TrEMBL record:
Keywords: Transcription, Transcription regulation. The lineage of its organism: Eukaryota, Viridiplantae, Streptophyta, Embryophyta, Tracheophyta. Residues 1-47 are annotated as: Disordered. Residues 52-112 are annotated as: Leucine repeat I (LRI). Pfam families: GRAS. Belongs to the GRAS family. It comes from Abeliophyllum distichum. Residues 131-196 are annotated as: VHIID. Residues 212-244 are annotated as: Leucine repeat II (LRII). Residues 13-36 have a biased composition (Basic and acidic residues). This is Scarecrow-like protein 14.
């Protein structure tokens, strides 16, 4: 249980435990150390690998596109293609993604590419695995979630209703910690209302993703006896008005 939710310390037990995190760091450290040095029997190559600043090339390519200089943008893309790789190091993989996006922008196929990517429905289990890997490797998202949830808990300590408008809710992974925390309030949990806002999905069920997130959160609230209401909205964010969320 998240017994420290209303304390000043930002403890949150909905994420992976510190023990598991320590084991992961230790395993990661060992894997790095095992790769140090030169394998036995290998020889140092006499050729030097050319060092290319892919970040600079990508930035200059994007600037050329912003200036409608298609010829220059294509020249930069030719250079970038020689060095990016979907299976290389972090910089090469990043360059691969951005170069594909820039190439689609030059060709005018960006909308078609986005539609093709979003047409694939990613199961919630896969999204959860990716999210767990992300927060285990990078603490910033975890800490921002903990800070936000603790702030909401502190500012709504006496409230009987809590209404949250979440733009870009995706799978709503931030809110189980909050739900578990407010369930511990003395005198009972307040009514929690979450307006989940996300972009539409292609197909005949454009709001299916955000509605599925609402159902998952509903089941979690039932588990901790938290009264819950969900308002799922799938539309462009700049078209959202106060009446859509039932009151900001």
């Amino acid at each position: 249980m998240n017994s420290g939710f209303y304390n000043e310390s930002p403890a949150c037990h909905c994420e992976e435990s510190s023990d598991n995190e320590g084991k992961n760091k230790q395993h990661y450290r060992k894997s790095i150390e095992s790769k140090r040095g030169r394998p036995r029997g290998s020889k140092v190559s006499g050729t030097k690998k050319e060092v290319i600043d892919l970040r600079s090339l990508l930035t200059r390519c994007a600037q050329a596109m912003a200036d409608n200089n298609t010829a220059t943008a294509n020249e930069f893309l030719k250079q970038i293609r020689q060095y990016y790789s979907p299976y290389g190091n972090a910089t090469e993989r990043l360059a691969h993604c951005f170069a594909n996006a820039l190439e689609a922008r030059v060709a005018g196929t960006g909308s078609a590419l986005y539609t093709a990517l979003t047409s694939r429905r990613i199961p919630a289990a896969e999204s959860l695995k990716a999210y767990q890997t992300y927060v285990a490797a990078c603490p910033f998202k975890r800490m921002s979630n903990i800070f936000a949830n603790k702030s909401i808990g502190r500012l709504t300590r006496e409230a009987t209703r809590i209404h949250i408008n979440d733009f870009g809710i995706l799978c709503g992974f931030q809110w189980p910690c909050l739900i578990q925390g407010i369930s511990l309030r003395l005198g009972g949990s307040p009514l929690l209302r979450i307006t989940g806002i996300d972009f539409t999905l292609p197909g005949f069920r454009p709001a299916d993703g955000v509605e599925q997130t609402g159902r998952h959160l509903m089941n979690y609230c039932k588990r901790f006896n938290v009264p819950f209401e969900c308002n799922a909205i799938a539309k462009k964010w700049d078209t959202i008005r106060e009446k859509n969320s039932g009151g900001m």
